Amino acid sequence: MEETEGFTDEERAAMKERAKEVRSARRGAKADKEGEVLEKIAEMPEEDRVMAERIHAIIKATAPELSPRTWYGQPAYAKDGKVVCFFQSAAKFKTRYATLGFNEDANLDEGTMWATSFALVGLSAEDEERIAALVKKAVS
């Protein structure tokens, strides 16, 4: 088994962002959560930013009951305070693709096995339709 050196700089930064989010929530900070999401999207490199903006618009249109917020410093969408889905920029952890992920509160159960995350290198009209269907199912 290969030994690791511990967490990467990117992983430590994500954990610090999450800790900051938790502290803010504990203090009862009434921040503009959607504004924070839009700020994080605006900070992304163009390729990720374009996808994140489209996904944000799709989720807002498809599931307005989801509340935008940040989660580990990335755009996420929650229902009753629990993150249902999130977007992770490829640049965040220097990966070759961005990720659209769903947490356990998403109603995506399909038999005994189902996907909980999707790699994104672009968005076609067909992809956008599939994302809308997944989000709709996730909140059903």
From TrEMBL:
Residues 9-34 have a biased composition (Basic and acidic residues). Residues 1-34 are annotated as: Disordered. Gene3D superfamilies: 3.90.1150.200. SUPFAM superfamilies: YdhG-like. This is Uncharacterized protein. It comes from Actinomadura rudentiformis. The lineage of its organism: Bacteria, Bacillati, Actinomycetota, Actinomycetes, Streptosporangiales.
